[in-house]
Specification:
Largest sheet: 10 strands, antiparallel
Number of helices: 5
Helix content: 10-25%
Oligomer: single chain
Strand content: over 45%
Number of strands: 46
Length: about 850
Amino acid sequence: MSKGEIISHIGEGKYRVRQKLAVERIQQEVTRLSERIAQLAIDLPTAQLELLQAENAVKDKVRDIDLLIPDYRAGVEGARAAINKLQAELVPLQSAAKQAQLRVSELTAENLSALKRRNQLEAVPEGRELDAWCADYTLDLTGDVGLVDVNDEGGQGVVIQPGYDGEGVYDPARDGAMFPGLAQSGIQLYFNAAILPGVQKWMPRYRIGTISNIESDTCRVELDEATSSAQGLSINQERVLEGVPIKYMDCNGAAFEDDDRVLVRYTATGPLVVGFAENPKSCGNIGFAFIPSGLGNPRRWWGEPFFQEDGTPTNPPLGTAMGQNPSWFLRPEGTGWTINKGNESLHGRRNWLGIGEDDILSWDGPVSRAFNSFDYDRLPSEGWLSRTAPSDKVYYQGRVLLTTTDLPGGHQYVRGAALRRFGESLELMVVVADGFESNEEFQFWAVPLSETVEVQGAPQLLETFSPTSIPGTYYSVGDWYFNASGDRAVWTFSEARDFGSFLAPGNKTFVARWSVYGSATETQMYDSRDSWGSNYRQFNSAGGTTSGTRVNLLRPIYADYVGDAEKIAYYETQGYTSNSSVSYSEYYRTDVSPNEQGQSHTLNSTTNYVGSHRLVTGDGMLILDLPDAANSVTNESGNWDLAEDLTGSASISSSSDYSELLNIYSIDLRFQYATVRYRRFIDSVSGSGSPGFGSQGEIRYEMSGNQLSETDVVILGTFGGDILFEVPVIVNKTVSTNWVAAPYVLPAPDGGTTTNVEMGISWFATPEGMWDCCGIRSRGRTAVSVWILDLDADPALLPNNRFNFQKLSGYGDVIDELFGRAGEEMTMYSLTVI
């Protein structure tokens, strides 16, 4: 943790900041060293003078001894005694000189060391400038602020403390100080390096992670991998944190969405999400728009006027049946909503979410992000589907931002839109087409906008595009979906297959990519005629074997952007290996009377599945999971012998459980939302029996035990990887304790044949009863509206063949608490983000 000084605000919560080091302690050390160096400037010359004097005294004494040596040699009386006396006097003088020399060496070394240390400390900067995000959407930070050092040490990233309500101001107790390693002693450096990984792991302060499973003001956080610079040790106690509270500005969890990168602070009571790692979001007014509608055919809605002439409310809170301006706009306020009724329905079912809090556009089109345009023949844009077909409008904040008549290209239908900001400029990027059922031609336009998001200036045609990968008929599988920055887009389309009397989606699936930096490109994702696996069979009169393999298959559904990351949604189909063997024998004797005959067989079959049946993105993000079985096993045997009497026995043990996707009502991978229709097959048999004669004289096995055969059709909805609803609409179930089984029939002889299995069509038709089916999330708040008419459903399971599900954050029962119509059937029709 450290101290920073704001230099400037770059924009959207990003600042230029000077990270300040603990220079006060450095300056104190420099002062101490300077004082010592000044003292050494006196002590060292003094010591050098004392050394010189000591050395001269030694020299004088040695000279005196040298002068007496000739007398000693000449035998002068007393010379020897004099020399001995002088030598005794020389010893302490030499010792004093040596001590003086040591003193000078010590002072000289200390002086050089002090000078070097002072130069090093004086070279340490007071701080360093860097760009850093504020953890929250505070745009007016000034002065000294607290800095978060990611993973509790310098060099692994810096985030400014959340600034809301003045909390970003530097707090020495919370933020501490950054003391440069160069300014520490060897002992300090060793001690800090030794304890650093332990302190980081067992006394953590801050981590970065990815948020998910947001429910009101709690969430799940998957922490980034974190290692210490000391020894490279891992410092996360646990990788995934569950039930983490969120404390953010004045809206807490409402500001966050799944996959946001967040800052986690460890407190005395546990981890706490306190902000974003980058690109903080405001607690702005992004909300939802819809038309309160009553189920039935035709659709009913309510609007203005909401009051009679005398001021009495009309049918509160809905207003006048079939009234004008029926749309409701809901915007977050604290933990609740501000509801604005009586709005013209200037919002579309398809939408784009940008980086800025107000960067939201919508346009008309099917509610599902993946909708094959071939289905328009069965689902014309009328009645409940009247807002399904594309129109000529782009909507922004409850108003029309652009109509295609503003563009000179002549193409009528809006097929994608985004806002693009670069420098001080703002542009509307819009894709328009000359149709929407098949074989469209697209135009990409850039339309200049003012600061108030109004069209200004002439639009510029950037490119005209039609796919060249398919020479014949092709169908759209969605619109052009832009990234959050508005400079790239993707479109999914499929090749038509000739089924003889009609065309339908069938063979190849492609994705087209466009960007402002180059022309559109096309890439094939799938060909239904490619091999998925193979089957092998070999039979003779004694039995045979079959085997099969299937790879774990990903069938593409559609491509989209989540933020600036391109993702593709797939239907993952289980792969498997299967092996089956049968031994068989039979005889028929005509040389005896009555004729004798018999048959016996033993069959063993096992299928082991790999992978799952689920909707998933290419990078592994789960959207929806279907029930799966790990394996399927069958063991059976039977024999009968007809001589004078019919004798024999049979036994069987078999189990299998398998699911397959039938239809996709709606999917939006941005929110991990999908509503689908799937079929599940369950078979379980265990029993034994003996042969007998049927009504036509045929031989059969009369079995007893337990037999279950069930085929279910289920409507399943998921959001954020969690199940919203799972509703059986058809259940065909047979349970028996006694049943009849036919004897085994040996296939025709085959010397061994291998056949390839095609992948199959990657098209999941939208059912005709999909009237309203949307799931969206914005700023951590969720809205789901599902209204399905399933004419094939069992009315005993689905009354009136209708399924209705409504969910809105802050309401336990939307129909009762929001619309005031407990027990009635209503929907948030044409739900979208606004």
